[in-house]
Amino acid sequence: MSGALLVAGTTSDAGKSMMVAGLCRLLARKGIRVAPFKAQNMSNNSAVTMEGGEIGRAQAMQARAAGLEPSVRFNPVLLKPGSDRTSQLVVMGQVSGTVAAGDYFHHRAWLADVINAELDSLRSEFDAVICEGAGSPAEINLRATDLANMGLARAAELPVIVVGDIDRGGLLAHLFGTVAVLEPDDQRLISGFVVNKFRGDPALLAPGLDQLERLTGRPTYGVVPFDDGLWLDAEDSLSVQAHRMVGIPGPARGVDSLRVAAVRLPRISNSTDIEALACEPGVLVRWVSDAADVADADVVVLPGSKATVSDLAWLRERGLADAVIAHAASGRTVLGICGGFQMLCRTIDDSVESGQRRVEGLGLLDADIVFEPAKTLRRWNGPLRGYEIHHGQIARASEDSWLDVGIRRGAVYGTHWHGLLDNDDVRRRWLTDAAMTGGRKGFVVAADVEVTTRRDAQLDTMADLLASHLDVGAVMDLLDRGVPSRPVITSTICGP
């Protein structure tokens, strides 16, 4: 076997990341050397690679599924939105500048060269490369600058599988329409479909899939059921919804539960840090965006942000800044991670992201932050594991050290480390202290929860779902033989 395919989606959050991860794990189990690839990602959830570069968090997770260390090769272009119109451009793991949406066309040619060269290199080294698209290939207004969907598929002659989330409704129309709006040379590459998150009796769906095949000439390779025990590193921070529970915690081991309010910042980054808390039995984690939702929490977490100063202003506008300060004044626990940590300090001097220079922080930690042009990208693989991605640096601090990974004042903690709470001993001690501080003396921390093991179990669950509900033989055939012959749809529905 020596092939590649592209998993595209009808929408963002349709299941592309899950399917790529599941296929990587499934193929790796068969002894096939497989690698993930996402040509261009737009996400503020990122991870640090073995080369000291930066890639999308989902691609790091997919690399783990394939039994590989994360590498910049798996996500050569990363866009990190700092506003609605501009993004930081990261190429082969390193910051290459800031681009506006309207100017991106001018970067396409040289970025395409980087992407195509890297994909060619991976294909020469691995038996299979499973590529992930971005958003939807039906966004034909963006086709001229597309590097991750049909632009990549056309350049590399990749068969394309389109996956859709049926839980949202209207999926058959989405699948048909995704093919129908494409130009003939793009349509030719669409090989088939996968239905994701199906609930109920598949026999009821079968007539619709049969008709879809008659209309499009393309089969459905599988109907993957909804699994409420499946959680996944979020690719897109927009999928993190305020007031939504994070994960499905098990029953409390003691008589008390611990309530955690994680603030859903507008430019949140690395929201996956919160998942480690949601793994714990009896820890109830909610994303919140209103001051009232902080009042009954035992712990408040301010996660990372790609726009620290802007998101700090948002905290103040929403009344959340005062709510967090009052929470800390009552003696209850506050944790700030990366950008959230910087917000807890006395001052932030930012001439890099916002250009606003010195602004007042929340003042819960006696420290000052200065943004530097060079971004810190660092992985820690010692007794404690984690990674850092930040422009802001501690210029002064008079607070106590916290495990050599940050600083603390009483029950207020701050760290630049992402993934710190994945360290089981650190998380257990911190939760125990937070429960005591919050008066939850009946809360008992589980001694048998291992987050890394839970994450690996999720990858196995994804692979198991695909093994049971996907025509794996047909997918392997795409990898072996490439693009199959498929008809072009000519539909009056889409106009002339």
TrEMBL record:
Keywords: Cobalamin biosynthesis, Glutamine amidotransferase. Residues 259-425 form the CobB/CobQ-like glutamine amidotransferase domain. Gene3D superfamilies: 3.40.50.880, P-loop containing nucleotide triphosphate hydrolases (3.40.50.300). One of its GO terms (biological process) is cobalamin biosynthetic process. Residues 6-231 form the CobQ/CobB/MinD/ParA nucleotide binding domain. GO terms for molecular function: ABC-type vitamin B12 transporter activity; catalytic activity. The active site is at C338 (nucleophile), H418. PROSITE patterns: GATASE_COBBQ (PS51274). Pathway: Cofactor biosynthesis; adenosylcobalamin biosynthesis. InterPro entries: Class_I_gatase-like, CobQ/CobB/MinD/ParA_Nub-bd_dom, CobQ_GATase1, CobQ_N, CobQ_synth, GATase_3, P-loop_NTPase. Pfam families: CbiA, GATase_3. Catalyzes amidations at positions B, D, E, and G on adenosylcobyrinic A,C-diamide. NH(2) groups are provided by glutamine, and one molecule of ATP is hydrogenolyzed for each amidation. Belongs to the CobB/CobQ family. CobQ subfamily. This is Cobyric acid synthase. It comes from Mycolicibacterium hodleri. The gene is cobQ.
